[in-house]
């Protein structure tokens, strides 16, 4: 770890790694520190069974070939699941299962209309003053509300009463391609050429002098400035100290963009229990309020990802891995029958709300606070710069959105340093 450098980058997720690469391209030195034992941040893959990968964080390349990681994968020789595009991006193929029974064609059409009408109401309310939450503008009494509420809770990690209408409508793009070998593995392979000091948590960022000094368990690093790419969950936790304290306008931006939680459970099976048309999106719910989003065989293996978010996702996480496993298997059984239970090999469950280096899945703007993404991205006195998915507008909550913010911040830093020299 270099004690003197041009730029200190705090965090080796997608934003920190892209910033380091861009700064090097622009002829500037950077030192990257990471609190965790690995790079990649919220892009992280584990083998659920030998040869079958499960992404605990991001798993799909939104927007397909328009995603920069599609070209990166091609360059690295990492295959993408392009063949699964149609099965997952056609909304008409989304299966709805209520109380263990698949909806009829007429009921399915009613749910699709409800989704369209709800998103139209959200878009119409996005510019209102004061801006309402999503829960204020949709029909919560509709029989089609439960799957939509689940889609918001899993898509944003926050229930409808806490989601900004503007924030929801500004994030677009098709689901895109899965990465059978793991999106986290793709990010790790791409970032392997960046020198990163691991297990080096930033304990204090001192910007009281002419430059910046960052204290870590492995020593103090000094530079002209720092780029902070950690989550708003970490920025709000108080564990990352700033001296002097961040200004009020920056603190307000952090608090306006709290972390949502989406947890997922990966279930692997000995054999194909899904049938010829089982692959794709399913949403299951029951009259006792048990609901989840279920992606079947997205990686092309005998595996399922079961999602739950918001308050229920956090509650289930606190019950522990066995409760998460049971919940996931029960939801899959609602779709494919109880016989699937005897074919389960193993499960992996996430715990994002208590993940010590993020404190959640991604930043979700409170009602009326979506504008804070731009505020969070603003530098302080040209010494503290900020990047990460929370600073992205339109690609928030995505790995490629974070990637783009790292490049944006690196270019801002280079313009400042070269202009000051």
What does this structure look like?
By secondary structure, this protein is α/β, with parallel strands linked by helices. It folds into 2 domains: about 5-40 and about 195-255 and about 370-420, FAD/NAD(P)-binding domain (3-Layer(bba) Sandwich), CATH 3.50.50; about 45-65 and about 85-175 and about 260-355, Polyamine Oxidase, Chain A, domain 2. The chain has 14 helices and 21 strands. Helix 1 runs parallel beside helix 14 and helix 2 (about 70-75) crosses helix 8 (about 185-190). The mean pLDDT is about 95.
Key terms:
single chain, 421 residues, alpha/beta, FAD/NAD(P)-binding domain, 2 domains, eight-stranded mixed beta sheet, globular
In brief:
The protein has 421 residues and is α/β, with parallel strands linked by helices. The protein has 14 helices and 21 strands. Helix 1 runs parallel beside helix 14 and helix 2 (68-76) crosses helix 8 (183-190).
